[in-house]
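Q: I'm writing up a methods section and want to include an example of the input and output format. Could you take the sequence below and give the corresponding predicted structure tokens, formatted cleanly so I can copy it straight into the document?
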Amino acid sequence: MRRMLENERYKGCQLLQKTYRPHISTTTRTPNTGQVNQYWVEGALPAIIDPDTFDAVQTEIAHRRDIGPAATPSKNTGCFTSLIQCATCGCCYQRKTRTYPSGTSYKYWRCWSACKGKGNPCGGHNLRETMLQTLMIDLLDLEVFDPQAVMDRIEVIEAFRDRLDIHLTDGSVHTAWLDAEGHARS
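A: Here is the clean output for your methods example:
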């Protein structure tokens, strides 16, 4: 799907020589990263979508790339995306949803290495989103949770087994201690 969304042919243009053959005798093609000239051809094909829509999609793809490696093109992105990093393995935490048989659910954040289906190698806790929101309200002295304030004022949250080190953009570091289940201690 990503290849389709990024393919310039859908708006009627074509980039020539994306790949090339390093030697005439080789049958494999190599991505062209500046070794040979590339040519942009407008109107090379009939457009399937209008150029404005295509450009808007490219802008959104670039925005999601800027958010970071843990961002997904679904509803599971948020202000904590790429902000919480595992201090053990360095991976970002991802937003997950747990749903009970009764139909109720809650959001939590989990280290990417633990999301791969091979156990939890770094031993990081699942961090409930409501707990993170309460921490941010207290730390940033907010009336109610404000995602924009978190994005503006928090640089990174390092997740250890026993604590969260919250680095603010002003250079200060605040520590929130966790209990054995990963809940913030009072």
